[in-house]
């Protein structure tokens, strides 16, 4: 169980830091409804995403693809990315180094 607060990041989307260390952070993003968006953005951190549940359409750079429960992928540092929820669910993201802006 995480001691970090649940933070609303958009309509139907929340995030909660699950664990952190200066070199690594684990964060859960919950999408409560189809159509909820993870806005396009980029950051200097390398990101690994695991789909715990649900179905999502991702854009990573110029590439678009769909993922569902059990899928995972890596987003390189500095690459613009975002997603649209197709079926409600949860993403588990790992960032290296830690995203201090989430603390």
From TrEMBL:
**SUPFAM superfamilies xrefs:** RmlC-like cupins
Specify the Cupin type-2 domain's residue ranges: 35-91
Q: Which InterPro entries match?
A: Bacilysin_H2HPP_isomerase, Cupin_2, KdgF, RmlC-like_jellyroll, RmlC_Cupin_sf
Q: Which domain of life is it from?
A: Bacteria
- One Pfam family name from the record? Cupin_2
From the Swiss-Prot or TrEMBL record, give the protein name: Cupin domain-containing protein
- What PANTHER family does the database record attribute to this sequence? H2HPP ISOMERASE
Please tell me the species this chain comes from.
Answer: Albidovulum inexpectatum
């Amino acid at each position: 169980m995480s001691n970090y607060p649940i933070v609303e990041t958009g309509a139907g989307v929340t995030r909660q830091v699950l664990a952190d260390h200066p070199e690594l952070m684990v964060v859960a993003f919950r999408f409560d409804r189809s159509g909820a968006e993870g806005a396009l953005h980029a950051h200097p951190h390398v990101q690994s995403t695991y789909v715990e549940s649900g179905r999502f359409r991702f854009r990573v750079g110029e590439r678009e693809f769909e993922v569902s429960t059990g899928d995972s992928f890596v987003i390189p540092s500095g690459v613009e990315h975002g997603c649209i929820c197709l079926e409600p669910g949860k993403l588990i993201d790992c960032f290296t180094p830690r995203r201090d802006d989430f603390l």
